[in-house]
Amino acid sequence: QTEIEFWHAMGGQLGETVDQMAANFNASQGDYVITPVFKGTYEETLTSAIAAFRAGEQPNIVQVFDAGAATVIGAQGATVPVEQLLSDNGVAFDREDYISGVRNFYADADGQMIGMPFNSSTPIMYYNADALEAAGVTAPATWEEFAETTAPALLEAGYIPLAQSHLPWIFTENFFSRHNLQFASNDNGYTGVDTEIMVNHPAIRAHFNALTEWQEAGYFEWYGTGWGDNQDPFEAGEVAMWLGSSGSFGGIADRVDFNFSAAMLPYWEAVTTEPTQTFIGGAALFAMSGFDAAENEATAAFFDYLASTDNQVFWHVATGYVPITTAAYEAAAEQGHYEEFPAAEVGVQQLQLPAGEFTRGYRMGFYVQIRDVMNREYGRILTGETSVEDAFETIEAEANELLARFAQTQG
Amino acid sequence: MAQVTLNQVRKIYPNGAEALEPSTFTIPDGELTVLVGPSGCGKSTLLRMVAGLEEITEGELSIGDRIVNDIDPANRNIAMVFQNYALYPHMSVAQNMGYGLKNRGMDKAQIAAKVREASEMLHLDEFLDRRPSQLSGGQRQRVAMGRAIVRDPDLFLFDEPLSNLDAKLRNQMRIEIRALQRRLGTTAMYVTHDQVEAMTMADRIIVLNAGTIEQIGTPNEIYEHPASTFVASFMGAPPMNLLRGDAKGGAVTLKGGQDVPHARADGHDGPIQVGIRPEDTWPDPAGDLAFDVDIIEELGAQRLLHGHVSGQAFSVAVPKDKEAGTGNMQLSVKPGAVHLFDADRGRRL
Amino acid sequence: MAQVTLNQVRKIYPNGAEALEPSTFTIPDGELTVLVGPSGCGKSTLLRMVAGLEEITEGELSIGDRIVNDIDPANRNIAMVFQNYALYPHMSVAQNMGYGLKNRGMDKAQIAAKVREASEMLHLDEFLDRRPSQLSGGQRQRVAMGRAIVRDPDLFLFDEPLSNLDAKLRNQMRIEIRALQRRLGTTAMYVTHDQVEAMTMADRIIVLNAGTIEQIGTPNEIYEHPASTFVASFMGAPPMNLLRGDAKGGAVTLKGGQDVPHARADGHDGPIQVGIRPEDTWPDPAGDLAFDVDIIEELGAQRLLHGHVSGQAFSVAVPKDKEAGTGNMQLSVKPGAVHLFDADRGRRL
Amino acid sequence: MKRAAFGHISFPILLLLPQLVIIAIFFYWPAGYALQSSFYLEDPFGFGSTFVGMDNYTRLASSSSYMDAAWFTLIFTSLVTFFALAIALLLAVKADKVIRGARTYRTLLMWVYAIAPPVAGLIGVMLFDQSRGNITQLLGMMGIEYRLGVNYWDTASAMITVSIWKQIPVNFIFFLSGLQAIPQSVREAAMIDNRSGTRRFWDITFPLLAPTGFFLLIINITYSLFDTFGIVDTIVKGQPGNNPMTLVYRVFVDGFRGQDLGGSSAQSVVLMVLVLILTIVQFRFLERRIHYT
Amino acid sequence: MAEISETQVAATAPTRPVKRIRWDTIGDHAVLIAGALLMLVPVYMVFATSSWDAITIHREGMQFGFGEDMGVNYNAALFEYGGFTDSVNGVTMLANSMILGLGFAIGKIIVGMMAAYAIVYFRLRFATLAFWMIFTTLLLPLEVRILPSYEVITAMNLGNTYTGLIVPLIASATATFFFRQYFRSVPEELIEAARIDGAGPVKFFIDILVPLSKTMIAAMFIIMFVFGWNQYLWPTLITTDESLFTLVRGIRQIIQSYADGSETPDYGQAAALAIIAMTPPVLIVVFFQNWFVKGLTESDK
Ligand SMILES: Nc1ncnc2c1ncn2[C@@H]1O[C@H](COP(=O)(O)OP(=O)(O)OP(=O)(O)O)[C@@H](O)[C@H]1O
Ligand SMILES: Nc1ncnc2c1ncn2[C@@H]1O[C@H](COP(=O)(O)OP(=O)(O)OP(=O)(O)O)[C@@H](O)[C@H]1O
Ligand SMILES: O=P(O)(O)OC[C@H](O)CO
Ligand SMILES: [Mg+2]
Ligand SMILES: [Mg+2]
């Protein structure tokens, strides 16, 4: 029997589900034994894995979140690309099996998958159906509709119309993908390390200017950088619409006592009339290098097992994360999952919207710090400490400086 | 005004040791009262209760007209010299002495003057800037003394304040303290083991023994009329000779057979104790008491003859210029200097 | 075997104070040497250097044949009683006393026996289980003593070991310590302020003054032939009277005019100091010295007459049975008891 | 060093050895490593690294957000150190003084220390939480709008409060044990010399407590500077955003979370140098005034 | 004389005055009670909260009153096996935390006392240097040097061992510094007496210094035990073996999702675990209370 280790960042019930899947895998065959180990937050997990790699103690599989992807993928030789791993070990693999939004995010410029998408999510708009009904509106498809129709009505009905969690993810990265705007040079960073961010775009500046106006008008409220702080008022029924992760579905379902549903992330008609798919969030699994063929074979077997339709459906249903393969999506639909929970389908659909030139993903080093810069500046915008224009200049400047530094580390 | 009154005051330590049996007495205002007694008899305990540092187990303690059982030490307006000095280790000598004054809001110049004055009296002027740890034992003790005397309290409490000084300095100190206390008219309680100190300084002496008060009186009363054999043998160096004897019709006969001159014990027939101080008797061929000298001890100014009278231990002090040898001799006894005590409890008859 | 030799030993404290000037002397094996001197003169410092607790600034110190300057105190095989007791606060009395024995690997039963023996001698048997904080000052001091005497060291060092005991107990202790030291034949150094202790216990006395050795000698030598006015006035209570005078052709005249009887200062013409002990002179209508008495002090066994001779302060000790009053009188002086010293340095002529 | 110190040579070295070996391996080695990597830009996996000289340092000097963090750290450290010490000292003095209930008070006051930091942090955020925080609600009733995570100073005050709260028991325990070691007789002498308990405290108790106080001062400064990062992290929920942050949290954010090894090493080195200067200053100027025996 | 006094006594039998109200004592208690409340109300709330279900807590925050899930939460916290290998439950995590707490506290105190002893009580030429070398370690918390430390531990093959968990944490000067401060204020006379009594360095240390430092050791022990007990980041980094998981890690795993809101963390169970995690340290505190008795260096009279 070959033993392999799998480090992840899934706490609470998610962790239990991971354990469950691992146990199932071990029970399903007799050749390989996988041991999942909880290593703290995403950041802690990644850092542990890096440290372990440097000490030659790395796990076979590590879970890496979106913002850390550039670091892992940049470090060629630290991981074995999944596609290669799978084909080396004779596992049938076809990129086309994967949902289009999922396929490219953890792939290289040529589309070769480096990381195995695992817990994938995407930002969607949850809404309080009772509230919308009371206000006599439906979920807005565009921001124009929101500003003109939805928000005034909801405000009138006594609700704070809109809140969101995670400005860098939802209102920046996915703003760019939803409108198919270029986010960074070098094909969003896929084709080189000397990348420059292109965040200071008029469209997004306009969006943030709109946000501040909405905030003043009472259409939008910002509760700080913390994810939950923005989600709580929605669950409490104070906020009518909330932008969050498709993976938030399970939690909301447990906790709210009103009818809720979800819609796709709105877009600006002024920017595009052909909105595109969004990026995936969440995390992927990477096979670390430095292991013998037998262990890599076990890793490949586990990945294969994970990607199987049954398991994807199980994971999707149990956690709210999107299924990563089309087959799994269809299977879930067949089971009637979406009839029961229409909101659970929104994320998958959004990820299957038409792709654009810049919707594959983005690859930028030191991206965790870049997000910190964004968060800082956005916070300052929304507390009136800076202007939108200044903020974006600062973000772009600081981000580019970080990118340049990252490029140097790769040299 | 600052008389100290104890009314059935008693002290039992948490471990059950009774350090002071219920005691009642008054220390008159303005007097200096010396406490004497063997080691461990309760002197420090008594002082510490007056100071408020030790809880009073039972009874009532007043200073002036106030019952102070529950009054904080700081509010009793006392000054105390501790047996172990208790100096503030982080303060210089001058600061140690001035601390009590500073707290009473005296201005700096005045404090400095007072400290200087006291330190001169105590020969500490060169050491004013030193820390206690850089002083000799006697110097520390003097600092402790200085800390008390710079103050102008209602009551002085001195716990063996001169024990670590040489005879000469001690002599000086004793006189100066006495003078100071008289001048200020401050009531004082003074613990000492030094008989000379006790005799010369005290207005009144309290003799303590194992937690009980044996006698209270002026030095003269204590010395000339000891209330018990304990007091008699405790006060006086060398101590009073105590001999067992019998009284019959007023006359007193020693156990070994001799009659005691100048002794009348009317109405106390039966066993008895006879006390004669070594300096109240002297070699005199015409004397009445046969004495058998074993050894002679030289003490400088005087000489002690140790031996037996009627087979019982007996000492005689003679001035060093008087010739003396061992062997048998006769002793004369000073009339009126024979003390009689009952045989079992040792109380004066 | 355990004689102590100092060869130009000197001590300067880090703050620059010279506590002992370079001194050379020997403490003979088996003898008990008493150190006396005013407070702060360097007695404890000397003892502590012998113990190895204080670094020797200069010179060489040997115990027995070993130069011990660099030997650890633990390896000097000494026992010491500290002036401030230095008891281990966390150990009971018995443990405090037994600790040194335990360190020498003695077995439990033997330690217990030794401790019991010592504690009986020191009247501490009831307190064996107590912590030092539950003892009176004198009891603590006795524990400190006990800690030393249970041991069987090469050298005893006692720093005012009896200062907090009452006269009676002190008397007993003194005799017992002396006997013990004799019996064991252990060399001992003993600091005391008590003249009686010094005179009765010492084989030899060292008189220290401000870091220098004034005189080394037997008690008798020190008392009868003080080497300096310092020694003369330091040893003896009340102290020797010192009068200024002039010598001329051997005869000595006091500054105020009177001639001094029995005094010959041949070859020392000029200013001179004359010493007469208070007990070496007595009221005698036929005496040669005119004395003017101001006050009389009662000390129990004797009486002190304080007054003036030729206008200079003078005291006379009389036995208490001698009548005495204030006013003018004549004094006789004991032949051979007049001490002469040079006028400026005070050295004996 | 004691006056009557032992003169041995090899024995004390033996005593020091475990400590020295441990710190050599687990402190000096990593610290040297931090120093070295502060001059490089390094790929976290160790594949590539570029020598950049003082770049990592000059970058900090010119970063306004770094300077903001430095300022905040100064304010934060001063307040936390001061209040954590002052409140603990007050409580310790009182607990030392009362006779009745002393044990109970001691136990209760030490108790909180037993709370695990993540739990303490969680208690903190939950109490101060924007929508369900009990303290937020209390303040709301008093008409104070309190918005943790949105308003800079609201967040700062929560960080400061929780940090103080968490540190009080430590200080309390050490102050209490320090108080116990003050000779009773000296306190008694002071009781006679001084009517005012407060003055007595400042004149006698406090100076004699100084060795413990000095220890605690340094420990508290290092606590506020370094050990509070867990609290900061919990309160900002891992996303500093526009909220205040301390310098060490930045080290953690950039290094442990962000894998910018060179940059965060430079920050560590700056911190170390700052604290080293601070402590040298304290030793030179404060310890002189401490009286040990 | 004594007789005379006795007659006086009979006249005025002492009547103890009614105890005065001691305002300062009341003040002292008021301060202590306020302090205890400040410290303890949050703890109480954790306890109350541990009796509720996750949803309620998530919606309403910390609770003052008691709910109905006390039994469920504590049972789950203590006895439900978690983790992948099902080898850990509250009880085993408790045991691991205990080993970490004890090992760390004892190790640190021993190492620290030894070093402080060497610095304070020996005439060592490089004592100051040694002190400074040790002292500077106060400056860099483990979190900042965690990655290199990890490399050392793995290089020494100490990953997944208690030694590897404990020893690097000891590499800081707190204990040494603290004992140095205390030793310096221990009266000089004690080492003098001990040396005269023939005690060498070892005996003095064991017989005199350690017993005298009891209070200080107790304080240090409480602090260090809890510090070790509560370690999180380091154990997470260096252990992968679930049987080495500690309570705090268990708590973290439960409340991990608090910040991102994707699911409802099991607050009740976390609170229960927090209470359980608090119990042994509190017991240690109660136990060492007895060491906090006054008067080791006291020498009154
Ligand atoms: N640590 C020190 N630093 C500086 N000077 C000191 C120190 N210890 C003692 N001295 C000084 O040295 C001198 C001698 O001190 P020592 O303790 O030997 O005196 P002593 O003869 O024992 O006096 P006492 O009879 O008062 O105990 C004193 O003047 C004292 O002030
Ligand atoms: N804290 C205590 N606990 C128990 N017993 C104590 C305590 N303090 C003193 N004692 C005992 O009480 C008795 C009286 O002690 P105290 O200190 O008053 O004696 P003292 O007369 O001052 O003796 P000394 O002349 O030796 O100083 C002694 O037997 C002593 O052992
Ligand atoms: O909450 P998740 O797991 O969907 O992740 C959201 C974003 O990817 C955070 O980077
Ligand atoms: Mg006493
Ligand atoms: Mg001395």
Structure description:
The complex is a heteropentamer, with one copy of chain A (411 residues), two copies of chain B (349 residues), one copy of chain D (293 residues) and one copy of chain E (301 residues). Chain A is α/β, with parallel strands linked by helices. Chain A is 49% helix and 14% strand. Chain A has helices spanning 12-28, 42-54, 69-74, 82-88, 100-103, 129-135, 143-156, 167-178, 185-189, 202-217, 227-235, 249-255, 293-307, 309-319, 326-334, 337-340, 343-351, 367-382, 388-409, and strands at residues 2-8, 32-38, 61-65, 79-80, 116-121, 123-128, 160-164, 239-245, 260-263, 281-288. In chain A, strands 1, 2, 3, 4, 5 and 10 form a six-stranded mixed β-sheet that branches. A four-stranded mixed β-sheet of chain A has the order 7-8-6-9. Chain B is 24% helix and 34% strand. Chain B contains eight helices and 19 strands. Chain B is of the alpha+beta class. Chain D is mainly α. Chain D has twelve helices and two strands; from the N terminus they run H-E-E-H-H-H-H-H-H-H-H-H-H-H. Chain D is globular and about 70 Å long. Chain E is built from 15 helices and no strands. Chain E has helices at residues 2-11, 23-49, 54-60, 70-79, 90-121, 127-135, 146-155, 162-170, 174-184, 188-196, 201-212, 214-229, 233-238, 247-255, 267-289. Chain E is globular and about 70 Å long. The interface between C and E is medium-sized, with 27 and 25 residues. The structure holds adenosine-5'-triphosphate (2 copies), SN-glycerol-3-phosphate and magnesium ion (2 copies). One adenosine-5'-triphosphate sits between chains C (13, 15, 17, 19, 37, 39-45, 83) and B (133-139, 164).
> Most extensive chain contact?
D-E, 101 and 110 residues
Physical arrangement of strands within the biggest beta sheet of chain B: 6-7-8-3-9-10
Radius of gyration of chain B over alpha carbons?
24 Å
> Which quaternary structure do these chains form?
heteropentamer
Helix content of chain E: 55-70%
In one word, what is the shape of chain E? Answer: globular
Name the helicity range of chain B.
Answer: 10-25%
Number of helices of chain E: 15
The run of helices and strands of chain B is EEEHEEEHHHEHEHEEHHEEEEEEEEE
What topology does this entry show?
The complex is a heteropentamer, with one copy of chain A (411 residues), two copies of chain B (349 residues), one copy of chain D (293 residues) and one copy of chain E (301 residues).
Chain A: E1 2-8, H1 12-28, E2 32-38, H2 42-54, E3 61-65, H3 69-74, E4 79-80, H4 82-88, H5 100-103, E5 116-121, E6 123-128, H6 129-135, H7 143-156, E7 160-164, H8 167-178, H9 185-189, H10 202-217, H11 227-235, E8 239-245, H12 249-255, E9 260-263, E10 281-288, H13 293-307, H14 309-319, H15 326-334, H16 337-340, H17 343-351, H18 367-382, H19 388-409
Parallel strand pairs in A: 1-2, 1-3, 7-8
Antiparallel strand pairs in A: 3-10, 4-10, 5-10, 6-8, 6-9
Helix pairs in contact in A: 4-13, 6-7, 14-15, 18-19
Chain B: E1 4-12, E2 18-27, E3 32-36, H1 43-51, E4 58-63, E5 66-67, E6 78-81, H2 93-102, H3 108-121, H4 137-149, E7 155-159, H5 167-184, E8 187-191, H6 195-201, E9 204-209, E10 212-217, H7 219-224, H8 229-234, E11 241-248, E12 251-254, E13 270-276, E14 281-283, E15 289-298, E16 302-309, E17 312-319, E18 327-333, E19 338-342
Parallel strand pairs in B: 3-8, 3-9, 6-7, 7-8
Antiparallel strand pairs in B: 1-2, 1-4, 4-5, 9-10, 11-12, 11-13, 13-19, 14-18, 15-16, 15-18, 16-17
Chain D: H1 10-37, E1 40-42, E2 49-51, H2 55-62, H3 64-97, H4 102-111, H5 117-128, H6 134-141, H7 152-180, H8 184-193, H9 197-227, H10 229-235, H11 247-257, H12 261-286
Antiparallel strand pairs in D: 1-2
Bound molecules: adenosine-5'-triphosphate (ATP) (2 copies), SN-glycerol-3-phosphate and magnesium ion (2 copies).
